[in-house]
Design brief:
68% helix; 336 residues; alpha+beta
Length: 336
Amino acid sequence: MTFRLLLYVAIIVQFIAMYYALRLVRATKYNSIWILFIIGFILMAGQRLLQLWISYGHPMPEITMVWFDIIVSICISVGVVMLDKLIIYIDRLNHHRQLTDKRILTAVLRAEEKSRANFSKELHDGLGPLLSSAKISLSSLSKSEMDPASREILGNTLYVVEEAVRSLREISNNLSPHVLADFGLARGVQNFIDRSSSLHKVKIAFATNLRSDRYDTDIEVIMYRVVCELITNSMKHSGCSEIRLSLSSSGEELELQYSDNGRGFDPQAMMDCGMGLSNINSRINSLNGQFSISSSKGKGMRASVKVNVRGARSLEAAPSTIDKQSHNRRHKNKQK
């Protein structure tokens, strides 16, 4: 009696499982793996029915039960083998999708830098000469005789034009830093630090062993942008009085260590809402690099960036427009 009761329970459970499995056939788009598993469920339920039939005294050849076992084993085994192949295919597909996402991100960053470089060139070569001509004309006027009021107006106008020229140079340099393209990452970062220190009272300590080492243009530009973003965030939001950063190369790894003594923050919250941290993370991901940040209230922040200079090249397809512009600048400098 107990055996029959267990058979009834097993039949009910297997039919419930089979019902829900059949409902998922359309959701799985009639995948052959899922269909094989459903056939296995149906055969196992049929096997239990036969056992129940035999328990009531009805004869049944043993070969029938053996065939049921063989067919169920075949369905399950083939399904498992196909499932293994499907999992491998999905993993390969996910890997290709990640590579595609990184290539797209790299292309977007290159397009952004190209737009910056073009805009910087237009400002420098277009508006720059006009302001310089205006400055020369005003300087010529200052040599002529005029009353004190006119001379004061002329002096103020000349000062405004000089400030406009200086601002234009800063904007052009921020958009596309020529020092970075001409002299490399270390000089570019040092130049940005010098300009930032002259405008703020924050002390910035910078150490590097790069000297005149050069890297792929995408690596140099992205690392430069990351340093600029971190320093700008610290000066604007942290209330710090001191910033320390080091840029070092060891073998094929380029490493940036950054810290400030500001008020600190919740890194995860800032990563979600902005402050440029998500932008930094995206840029580093485009180089196959690693970006980590730690901070807490009242204890400042620390950030670390590690990039394999060879691994970063694995996503490259062809030299970018920025690469060509940088090469042209270096060629001109050598001629000079």
